[in-house]
Request: fold
Amino acid sequence: MKNRTCAGVRRRAAAGIVGAAILLSGCSTAPAAGPPSGSTTTAASTDPTPSDPTPSDPTPSDPTPSPAPTPEPPRPSGWLAEVTGDAGRLAILGDSFAAGEGAGDYQPAVSGDGDSCHRSLHPPAAELFAPQNIANLACSRATTGHLTAQQRLAVPDPGAGPATDPGTVPAQLDQLQGFEPTLVVLSVGGNNLDFAGILQACLLETTPCSDDPQLVAHAAEQLSALEADLTDAYSNVAAAVSAPVLVLPYPQLFDEPDGGCGRLSTEEQRFGRDLIDDLNAVIRSAVDTSAASNLYYVDALEQALAGHGACSPEPFVHAADLSGLLQAADSFTANQELLHPTDAGYRAMTAELVRWAAEHPVPQ
Reply:
């Protein structure tokens, strides 16, 4: 049930579109006190796909049908069916890819304006649970350390007037107190490496990031230290709950390139692909070597966005093309969303999670 690899870091200060490459800074977090419900809940999917008309239906079909909606995820079966639905309780921990960065409908983690935690109503697995039974505790820019320590939020627009304190959110495992989940999903590790900084270098520098020996060496150095951090983090989470803890890999954001993609050359896209593969290999290795009996690596999510990568004609990712970069230059929200899955992307991830669970029995 478990596996291994990934990614490094370098951060460039920025002007204009610099912030545009925030990849793993995504979002979400829960209230500071009491069981994480109410404002921390995440919405399940609605509007099921309409059934096909019966043969006797005399109404002619629309000659110009609208694009097909993203398919509903398959229905959970087996052990997953037992821990989801109206009786299930979902806890979401980690960084932006757990919180649903890019899916919109962000709920405030703290009072006031400009909350950079970006907790979405549509993170992975949310469609499988009643909305009131979801505690989305993940937060943009969270590292493994923020599972057990408070996190200071980012200033949404440092250049707009006097700086205000954006506040902090409590440690995610502290927020979990009083909430007894039947399932936990966890995505963390990328921000330990400053993966966003690496992609900023790819987007902004004239020299391809894949040809920068300093950057490549630093990534390798960060990778070598990541597994120990992950091992500690997984032990803390697995000990805090009795429910299965599903460790999510980072979905591959780039299909095999066949040309340039905005400011990303084919070489840089391959560099990004390798970086994600390496990151997931380290994550899988940390899960494999964990002594926790309730920890599982959901390898099926690695290719959940295949065919719909950031440079594809129909991306399930906020793309780094010219339009995406211009939006990121003008909007703090678009900046954070860049190179994160869209709502359709998270639904595709949920579908792969359901399929994985059908093939992997979890001990009760």
User: Anything to note?
Assistant: The chain has a mean pLDDT of 79.
